[in-house]
């Protein structure tokens, strides 16, 4: 590139810049504007009827995240963009009856290990659910050690429960310090490996049998692991602690085990 084009004419005469250079400057200005428009101290709280609109808005502001909520009366889903700090401040002050909130686990964003554990208690009576979770954790920690040479610790675990008389329902989140998977599809691939390992060792390790439950489908009852493997799809909505589903009375609350011993409802 000519020095006259980069610095300007030494005599103060305006230099005609190539169109390609002007286009580049235009792109740079737009990019810099996106970076400087957002001040982390500014309040961001924007709602959208569609998830793609919320994600597109969030991408313009590096410090924001996408949430989802259900309107209390209708159950209609809407999407919200805010910072974690601003969201938690308002969420903390909200009437618990209208907390129907989820975080959107965005595609191509770093992600921690998470599980959605559930089964119909009417078809699976007298199950020791704490023992089932403990066995699963042991299998996951073994897989982390064998695959990544990571030694697991219980203080990494957040365990949340929203079980009712008819349904066992628990969320399990394993947050390894300073480490995350590339995105939730990679978490899903790791979980599939864990499931395959459980199935392969089931005949020789009878504790693993306890992770299987009876599930009713159209063709009749079947034997299944108690993990929902459909929750690793892109831009998945995952319910937040202290929230209930719209129209339901079961809130997702800490179990007082692992990391949740000191966590209390606001």
Helix/strand structural class: alpha+beta
Distance between the termini: 60 Å
Please write the string of helix (H) and strand (E) elements: HHEHEEHEEHEEHEEEE
Taking all Cα atoms into account, the compactness measure Rg is 24 Å
What shape does the CA trace take? globular
Strand count: 11
Q: Specify the oligomeric state.
A: single chain
Helix content: 25-40%
Give the low-pLDDT segments. Answer: 1-17, 24-36
Largest sheet: 5 strands, antiparallel
Enzyme class: transferase
EC number: 2.7.7.102
GO molecular function: DNA-directed DNA polymerase activity
Domain C962R-like N-terminal AEP: 82-250
Any descriptors?
EC 2.7.7.102; DNA-directed DNA polymerase activity; five-stranded antiparallel sheet; AEP_C962R; 266 residues; DNA-directed primase/polymerase protein; 30% helix; four-stranded antiparallel sheet; alpha+beta; PRIMPOL
Please give a structural write-up.
Mean pLDDT is 87; it is low at 1-17 and 24-36. Among the domains are: 1-37, no CATH class; 113-234 and 251-262. 24% of the residues are buried. It has helices at residues 3-7, 19-37, 51-59, 84-93, 129-148, 184-201, and strands at residues 45-48, 65-70, 77-82, 101-105, 113-120, 157-161, 167-174, 212-217, 220-225, 236-239, 253-254. The termini are far apart. A hairpin with a 5-residue loop joins strand 6 (157-161) and strand 7. Helices cover 30% and strands 23% of the residues. It is globular, with a radius of gyration of 24 Å. The chain has a five-stranded antiparallel sheet with strand order 1-3-2-4-10. A four-stranded antiparallel sheet has the order 5-7-6-11. The chain has six helices and eleven strands. By secondary structure, the chain is of the alpha+beta class.
């Amino acid at each position: 590139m000519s020095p006259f084009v980069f610095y300007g004419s030494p005599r103060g005469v305006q230099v005609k810049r190539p169109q390609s250079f002007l286009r580049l400057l235009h792109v740079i200005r737009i990019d810099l504007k996106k970076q400087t428009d957002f001040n982390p101290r500014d309040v961001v709280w924007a709602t959208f009827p569609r998830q793609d609109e919320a994600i597109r808005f969030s991408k313009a502001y590096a410090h924001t995240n996408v949430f989802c909520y259900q309107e209390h009366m209708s159950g209609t889903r809407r999407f919200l963009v805010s910072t974690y700090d601003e969201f938690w401040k308002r969420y903390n002050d909200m009437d618990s009856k209208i907390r129907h909130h989820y975080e959107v686990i965005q595609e191509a964003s770093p992600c921690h290990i998470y599980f959605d554990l559930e089964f119909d208690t009417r078809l699976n009576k007298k199950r020791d659910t704490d023992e089932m979770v403990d066995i699963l954790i042991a299998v996951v920690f073994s897989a982390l050690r064998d695959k990544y040479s990571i030694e697991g610790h219980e203080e990494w675990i957040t365990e949340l429960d929203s079980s009712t008389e008819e349904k066992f329902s628990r969320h399990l989140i394993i947050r390894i310090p300073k480490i995350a998977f590339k995105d939730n599809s990679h978490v899903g691939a790791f979980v599939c490996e864990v499931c395959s390992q459980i199935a392969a060792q089931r005949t020789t390790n009878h504790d693993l049998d306890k992770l299987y439950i009876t599930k009713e489908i159209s063709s009749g009852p079947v034997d299944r692991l108690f993990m929902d493997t459909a929750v690793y799809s892109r831009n998945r909505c995952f319910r937040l602690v202290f929230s209930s589903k719209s129209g339901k009375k079961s809130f997702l609350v800490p179990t007082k085990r692992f990391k949740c011993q000191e966590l209390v409802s606001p």
